[in-house]
Amino acid sequence: MATRSLWRTRAKLAVAATALCTGGAAATVATSDDRAAALKLCTTVPLRLLRDSATAASIVFDYQYSLWGLPEGSNERAKIKHEVHLRSARKLQELCFRNGGIYIKLGQHIGQLEYLVPQEYVLTMRESMLNKCPVSSYDQVCEVFKKELGETPDKVFDEFDPKPIASASLAQVHIARTHDGQKVAVKVQHTHMTDTAAADQATVEFLVNTIHRLFPSFDYRWLVAEIRESLPKELDFLIEAKNSVKCLENFRKLSPHIADYVYAPEVHWSLSTSKLLTMEFMDGAYVNDVITIQKLGIQPSDVARLVSQTFAEMMFKHGFVHCDPHAANLLVRPLPSGKRRIFGKKKPQLILLDHGLYKELDFSTRFSYASLWRALVFSDANGIKEHSVKLGAGEDLYVLFAGILTMRPWNRVIDPAVDHLVIKGTDSDLSELQMYASQYFPQISELLRRLPRVILLMLKTNDCLRAVNNSLLQGSSLETFFIIGRVSSEAVVEAKMTQMKSLFSWIDIWFEEFLFEARLLALQIAFWLLRVRNALT
Predict the structure, then answer these.
(1) Res. 397: pLDDT tops 80
(2) Domain named Protein kinase: which ranges (predicted)?
(3) Are residues 89 and 148 in the same domain?
(4) Residues 58-91: tens digit of each pLDDT
């Protein structure tokens, strides 16, 4: 009977996919003005949908069949479950690579969801999705150039390397030289993104909704909704170019104290369109390449502090946040001015790449988010609850929200110990996180469904930054949380100052800031004493 039920599930997916494929194909050919594009769409999309359905059915069947009859909590079930996780992650990885585009974007996102999906999926996706993306052929690149600029790359540029130096989910990057001798990086959108992006998005949405109907606890509809909103913006490279300009303007105006330490490539507007982006070529080390960073004469800990400061300023003060800061999008180089630290080490400059995915936080959201992080840093349980509820977590799930933000259980979140939020990156830390992910999967899914999409992207940004910090420091750093605490508190005070109505209000705000500085100083002193004690024992 169980086997019949499993086969029935696979059949439902297959029948639904077939119906959608044949009906959609006929409708597309009948209504399209571009018959060649329509024919390409009708041969590609149905194949992908069938492939999606087959993979989903295979994974569902593997889980239910392999774990059938094995008692919960037994060693045998844990062993078999680990094997199924690995097999399923590899199947999903293969599906993403074969379909490309939006599917790779989806795989990259899964690789950041440590708090929701099993570690086997996280590691499989993280190891492959950032640097092994499919590559468009040179003929396809020429096709994009002809459509966008009317000429092939060898006519537009004095030199153009047909072999890309990097390929991502939506585009790939080539090195070129302009006719006036400037070395540039040219980002070229994959041709299939233009042809199938909307159809792929509908396909993924259909599949996720179907699986949710069959298995209500599997609810990733929030992820589909986010892709639906963000993908069109990411596919317009002129929006990306404008984002990079606005980002640097914000640092110059709102965070001048670190503006020299943050950079984005200059855009060549006359050689850029919605599907082609020509930028200044940047030479530097990837932010997770610790060996190269050290060879440049830069301390990895200085880079970690700069990354934390940069994104804290964006989130809490600018309200305009780069939401895709994974390692492939962050470069490090010595500060061009040549400034050095006291002991001779070079100061770092952070170069931000790929400005396609930004989110704006309105005043209320930014104030609540900054207030929440300040409460987290100071173990303020009442403040954590108050601002989590304001952000949409609800009184029933605010504890879980705090845990996802910090990747710490609630008893550690409210622990007054100076290092209560530090993750050491040990096996016990990882296993504890995975246990919570497994134990609270339905509640986490409900929380992600409930939160505003802008906060979901803040979670993704936090996940990316946490992975960067782990690679630089082999775990999180207490100094990172000092930076977050300071910048979030400054942002809260600045926000309150804009609402100030009397001299008494100003005094109250000043006194609040004084108390914060005193608490932060006490924490820093305790931290240094702890380090001295550890060094002596």
Answers:
(1) yes
(2) 159-482
(3) no
(4) 988 898 889 898 888 888 988 998 899 999 999 9
At 299-329, the pLDDT tens digits run 999 999 999 999 999 999 999 999 989 888 9
The whole-angstrom separation of Cα 293 and Cα 228 is 37
Residue 242, phi-psi category: left (phi > 0), alpha (psi -120 to 50), beta (remainder): alpha
Task: Report the 10 Å Cβ neighbour count for 247.
Answer: 21
Q: Beta 262-263 vs 348-352: how paired, if at all?
A: parallel
Give the active site residue among 195, 219, 302, 324: 324
- Read off the pLDDT of residues 466-511 as tens digits, 9 standing for 90 and up: 888 888 887 666 778 888 888 998 888 888 777 665 555 666 666 6
- pTM of this structure: 0.82
- In contact, 475 and 421? CB cutoff 8 Å: no
Other beta carbons within 10 angstroms of residue 523's beta carbon come to: 18
The question of whether 324 is a catalytic residue gets the answer yes
What range does the domain containing 302 cover?
A: 245-269+282-360
Residues 177 and 222 reside in one and the same domain: no
Cα–Cα distance for residue pair 246/410, rounded to 1 Å:
38
Q: For all residues of the chain together, what is the average pLDDT?
A: 82
One domain for residues 383 and 351: no
> 461 and 344 in one domain?
no
